[in-house]
Amino acid sequence: MSVIKIADGGGHTITMTNIDGYHISSFKPSEILSEIFNNIPVLKCRYDDVFICAPVKSGTHWTWEIVSMLLNGKAETIPNSKGAQMLEATPTEIIDEIPSPRVLNSHLHLCRLPKEALEKKCKFVFILRDPRDLAVSYYHHCKGISLYEYDGMFENFLPLFLEGKLDYNNYLEYVVEWEKAMEERPEIHLTYYEDLKTNCIEEVRKLALFLGITCTDDLIRRISDKCNFEQMKDDKDNHIPEEVRKAIFRENFSIFRKGTVGDWKNTFTVAQNEYFDSMFLEKMKNSKLLRRYT
Predict the structure, then answer these.
(1) Model pTM score
(2) Which residues are in the Sulfotransferase domain (predicted)?
(3) Is position 107 annotated as part of the catalytic site?
(4) Which of 38, 60, 76, 195 gets the most CB atoms within 10 Å of its CB?
C-alpha cells in the first residue's frame, strides 16, 4: 500500500492510495486504510443490512438518505452522514456498533464487498448514472476535496477516468460485474439516477416495495419532497461540522453540486464526446444496463 500521485496530460497530479493496484481516496492514513480494506471481506453482516452501491458521483448520498428515511418510517433528515457508514472509509469496529437496520454503502467492486452480505442475501440497491454526467461531477468532486490535491483541467481529467486510473479503477468493469450479479441475484435492485430526477415518488415507491416496507402514499410523497436535491443539499450541508469542512473541503465546495441530468453537454467539447464514444460507446452497447446512455 502507498500514497500515489497520478499525473494528467497537463502535468497536474491527483493524490490517491494504491492498495495492491486498486486505487481509492486517501480517506485515512495508509496504515488505517489498509486495515479497513483488509477487514471488509470478513465484515460480519446482518440479515437486515441494506447496501447502497454505485460508481462514484451516481447519487449514493441521495439514495442513502431515501432508504434511511424509508427504514425509519419518517420524512426527516438523517442527522449523520452517509460517509459514517461507508465501508471503505470507516473502521470495522465502528460499523459493528451501528444499530440495525444498517444502511451501509460502498463504491467498491462487488468482489471486494463482505462475503457474508452475499451469503445472507442482504439487499443491495445499485445505482447508475449517465457516465458523462458522472465524469463531470467527479471532476468537480476531485477539484473540491483537498485530499486529492488536484488542480487540473477537465480536458486532462477525462482520459484518467476513461482509462480507469482514478478511484475504484475501471468504470466499465465495475458495471459489468454488477450486471452479471443482477442476472442471478434478485436481492439487487437497480435505480437509475435519471429516473429519480424525473419521477422520484415512483422510484421511492419501488424502493419501499423492494425493501418490504409498507408505507402510505403520503409518506412516500413527503420523503420524495424532503429528498428534493435543493432541500437535501441545504439540510445535509448544515450537518457537516465546520472543522470537518475545513479539513476536507476546499472553499465554497459542496458534495451536492448541481444534481442535474445532461449537464455534461455544458462541459464536453465535440472532440471530448467523440473521444468518450471511441473509448466507451461500443462496450456500453453490450451492456443492458448502460444501453440507455448510448
Answers:
(1) 0.93
(2) 48-287
(3) yes
(4) 60
